[in-house]
Write a structure and sequence with these properties.
CATH superfamily of the largest domain: Umud Fragment, subunit A
CATH architecture of the largest domain: Ribbon
GO molecular function, one term: serine-type endopeptidase activity
Number of domains: 2
Strand content: 25-35%
Structural class: alpha+beta
CATH topology of the largest domain: Umud Fragment, subunit A
CATH class of the largest domain: Mainly Beta
Shape: globular
Protein name: Peptidase S26 domain-containing protein
Largest sheet: 8 strands, antiparallel
Helix content: 25-40%
Order of helices and strands: HHEEEEEEEHHEEEHH
InterPro entries: LexA/Signal_pep-like_sf, Mitochondrial_IM_protease, Peptidase_S26
Number of strands: 10
Radius of gyration: 18 Å
Number of helices: 6
Length: 206
């Protein structure tokens, strides 16, 4: 049973998302000022803040994603900026080496962060605006095995599809993922209202 306060928090997140999404469409000329109000309410009443996504397996993000693969619940974000994505968050992003594929990695740094290598031969550098650095959770893997920013470098924030907030490895092994404290607080009402484990099980290819 979802409490009234949780519903209010969820509605506030959804309304903010609807406004941001509609404003973005308006600024790029996809809709006009008259259509913007309709777009806001349509998104608010008919849209969702999450979607399930099947992810291929591998050791890079175990145990968040099982080596055999699994389904994750992804929260949509209207603006891919450090105001909505935080260091420590697990994100779904376009594979820098295979743009048609999606991968899950952890956000380790965002624009303005100075990156210093453990190899003294590498010069330190600062991440440019709208760039981020993503890493695999399995620290024992080498760069080629982990397939993270150590291999392909900084990633454009625009390549991020959303924040992973729940992971279903099997029908009996699932739960919220360990994101930044701020993100987990923000996503709590979204999970309370939109999480449907049975639907995620149907989407799972296991």
């Amino acid at each position: 049973m979802v409490s009234l306060s949780t519903w209010f928090r969820y509605a506030a997140h959804k309304f903010e998302y609807s406004i941001s999404l509609s404003w973005k469409k308006y600024t790029v000329g996809q809709i006009n000022s008259t259509e913007m109000t309709d777009a806001i309410w349509k998104s608010f009443f008919q849209g969702k803040l999450t979607f399930p996504q099947w992810i291929k397996g591998g050791e890079a993000m175990a145990p968040v994603v099982a080596p055999t693969g699994g389904t994750v619940l992804v929260r949509k974000l209207a603006t891919l900026s450090p105001k909505e994505l935080f260091v420590g968050d697990i994100v779904l992003l376009k594979d820098p080496e295979k743009s048609d594929d999606l991968i899950v990695r952890r956000l380790a740094a965002v624009q303005g962060y100075e990156m210093v290598s453990t190899d003294e031969k590498d010069e330190p550098f600062v991440l440019d605006k709208d760039e981020c650095w993503v890493t695999a959770d399995n620290q024992e893997l080498k760069a080629k095995e982990a397939r993270d920013s150590r291999l392909f470098g900084p990633v454009p924030m625009t390549d991020i599809v959303g924040r992973v907030i729940y992971s279903l490895r099997t029908a009996v092994d699932h739960g919220p993922v360990d994101n930044s404290r701020v993100a987990m607080f923000q996503d709590l009402p979204v999970l309370a209202v939109e999480l449907d484990v049975e639907e995620m099980v149907k989407n799972n290819k296991m």
